[in-house]
Write a structure and sequence with these properties.
With 306 residues, the chain is mainly alpha-helical. The protein is built from 13 helices and no strands. The C terminus is likely disordered.
């Protein structure tokens, strides 16, 4: 009997030892892969930052990766002294802030209504929303619609067409369904209207989901330049990304004029381009860590589960 117990105890210790060994190997491989992926991601980004800090001569040589041989802040001075860039920054910030507020509010109201199972024709509305996730009207019909609405060369072309996203509505809708119905019933007994229930109960309880779609839409608004390219001809309404696109196209046009012109213009244009890339990336890098906790929670709890 004692011999049998000893064998069982030995087997358990051996199994635990093997499990610990496998776990250590698994963790080591995971850490190694994560380190490699991190290096792959960070090196190009750091190269862009280092290149933006290089002088035109060092940038023309291009013989560095981690730090320029000649440090210079001329690229940033030129960018920050450009009044058109400050205007583009204002447009980008304005359309991002207003777009996020309008989009989040509109989607939250839609999600609140669709989360009610007693809503008439709820299935029809959901089907119409799902169709928009897979099909669009096409570029030309959309352009004609924007034109007929009088949104061409208007700041509101950045805001109104982007008000609705059924994907974001689904995230919020599933989040709202987790709110206990007893809260609704208690509020109605106290005489609260649907709007007051939405504003005072659902919105405070759904901050992670709201932060998630706000971050999604904010990043899209900040990086979007196709809307400008398609619907805006007034350069006073150009956002920062369109300004960056202009710098890139001017650099490419200069390089096609000949080698000497390319060396004279491209080095400066390239430096300004890289400095602009760094400046346009900083707001996202600052905002994302502040919303990361809410973002992860919103993605986990608001996942599609119909």
């Amino acid at each position: 009997m004692e011999t049998s117990k000893k064998k069982i105890s030995f087997s358990k210790r051996r199994a635990n030892s093997l499990a610990d060994k496998d776990s250590k190997i698994f963790n080591f491989v995971n850490i190694l892969l994560l380190v490699v992926f991190t290096i792959i991601i960070i090196v190009p980004i750091w190269n862009v930052v280092a290149s933006s800090l290089a002088s035109s001569e060092a940038l023309a040589k291009g013989d560095f990766v981690f730090w320029p041989s000649e440090l210079s802040f001329d690229n940033y001075k030129r960018v920050l002294n450009d009044s058109t860039l400050w205007n583009a920054l204002w447009i980008s910030a304005s359309k991002t802030v207003l777009g996020v507020l309008a989009h989040t509010t509109f989607c939250a109201i839609m999600a609140f209504a669709l989360s009610k199972r007693n809503l008439k024709a709820r299935g029809l509305y959901s089907t119409m929303g799902i169709i928009t996730m897979f099909f669009s009207g096409g570029m030309i019909p959309t352009y004609l619609l924007i034109k007929s609405l009088g949104l061409l060369d208007s700041f509101w072309v950045y805001i109104i067409p982007a008000l609705f996203s059924y994907y974001d509505v689904v995230i919020l809708m599933n989040f709202f369904r987790d709110v206990p119905t007893s809260l609704d019933e208690s509020a109605k007994i106290d005489g609260a209207s649907e709007w007051k229930i939405f504003k005072d109960i659902y919105v405070p309880l759904s901050k992670p989901a709201l932060a998630t779609i706000a971050l999604f839409h904010g990043v899209w608004q900040w990086n979007d330049f196709m809307t400008t390219k398609l619907y805006i001809t007034d350069k006073g309404l150009y956002p920062l990304q369109m300004k960056l696109y202009e710098i890139i196209t001017q650099s490419q046009a200069a390089s096609s004029q000949g080698l000497n012109a390319a060396i004279a213009i491209n080095t400066t244009s390239k430096g300004v381009q890289l400095a602009t890339i760094v400046i346009t990336t900083i707001p996202i890098l600052v905002i994302y860590p502040l919303l990361q906790k809410q973002f992860i929670s919103g993605m986990m709890l608001g996942a599609v589960k119909e």
